[in-house]
Amino acid sequence: MKKFFLINLSVLTFSFVYSQEVSDALRYSQDNLNGTARFRALSGAFGALGGDLSSINVNPAGSAVFNNNQFGSTISNFSTKNNSNYFGTTTSECDSTFDLNQAGMVFVFKNQNTKSEWKKFSLALNYENANNFDNSTFSYGTNPNNSIDQYFLYYANQNGGVSVSNLQLQPGETISSLYGFLGSNYGFGTQQAFLGYQAYIIDPASNYNEISNRNYVSLVPNGGNYYQENYFTSDGYNGKLNFNFATQYKDFLYLGVNLNSHFTDYSQYTSFYERNNQVSNEIRINRLQFDNRLYTYGNGFSFQVGAIAKVTKEFRLGLAYESPTWYTLNDELSQSVVGIRSSTSGELSPDIVDPRVTMIYDRYKIQTPDKITGSLAYVFGNQGLISFDVAYKNYSNITLSPTNQFRNLNTTISNKLTNTAEFRVGAEKKIKQLSLRAGYRFEESPYKDTKTMGDLIGYSGGLGYNFGNTKVDLSYSHSKRNYQQQFFSQGFIDGASIEAITNNFSLTFLFEL
Question: Domain of 422?
Answer without folding.
Answer: 27-145+227-349+367-512
